[in-house]
C-alpha cells in the first residue's frame, strides 16, 4: 500500500509503503527537482489545472471558515449548556429551600391554629369570669339591699312597737 500524504504537487512530500506481507514499512522522501518532465502540456490542460487548483484552494478556505464557525458555535453551545446546568442547579437549590420554608410555614400555621383555639378558650373563660363577677356583684348588691331592708324593717318594728305602746295607752 502506498501513502502519499500531500499529493504530487508538494515539494518534500513523504511517501510511505506498507508491504502486504507484514514486513516493516519503508519510507522515502521525494523532492521536486524540476517541473520539466519532457512532456508538453496543452494550454487548455494547464488552464484546467490552474482552475482546479483555485477551486480546491477556495473550497479549502471555505472548509476552514466553516470549521472555525463550527468551533465557535460549539463553544457557544457549551457555554449555553453550562449556563443551563448552573440554572438547573440553582433551581434545585431553590426548590430545596422552598420545601424547607413550606415546612416552616406549615408549622407556623399549626401554631396559629393552636393559638386561635387557645384564644377562643380564653374568651370563653373570660366570659364565664365576667358572668361570675356579675353574679358576685349582684350578690353584693342583694346583700346591700338586704341590709338596707333589714335596717328599714328594724326601724319599722321600732315604730310599730312605739305605735302599739301608744295605742295601748289610748285604750286604757
UniProtKB/TrEMBL annotation:
Annotated region described as Disordered, given as residue ranges: 126-149
Keywords: Lectin
GO molecular function list: carbohydrate binding
Ranges of Basic and acidic residues composition bias in the record: 126-144
Official protein name in the record: Ricin-type beta-trefoil lectin domain containing protein
